[in-house]
Amino acid sequence: MLNAIVILSRLNQLEIEVAKKATKKTIVRKEYTASDIKLLKTHSKAKTPVSKLTKLMKRSEGSLRQKALMLGIGLGHQR
């Protein structure tokens, strides 16, 4: 009986540790500045590949595509 209690307490402790490790990072959103928009338009005209643009601007591909869609410009080299 004593062994069962020790095992249960260890399982509860493991569940707590796993729950602590599973916490998500907070999402920090970065606003687009006027210079960011100008850079995006410039690279749109130059037909820069989106993969290079993501590394350059430090933004996700989805974020860049959404902003380009809102601005009404094409993005990428195969359009």
Give structural notes.
By secondary structure, the chain is mainly α. It has helices spanning 2-21, 34-45, 50-57, 61-71. The chain has one domain (2-71).
| Derived structural class | mainly alpha
Percent of residues in helices: 55-70%
Q: What is the strand tally?
A: 0
Radius of gyration: 23 Å
Order of helices and strands: HHHH
The major beta sheet can be summarized as:
none
- Based on CA inertia axes, which overall geometry fits? rod-shaped
First-last Cα distance: 69 Å
Beta-strand content estimate: under 5%
Weakly predicted, low-confidence segments: none
Number of helices: 4
Number of domains: 1
pLDDT averaged residue by residue: 83
Features:
mainly alpha; 0% strand; rod-shaped
Tell me the layout of helices and strands.
Elements (H helix, E strand, L loop, with lengths): L1 H20 L12 H12 L4 H8 L3 H11 L8
Short description:
By secondary structure, the chain is mainly α.
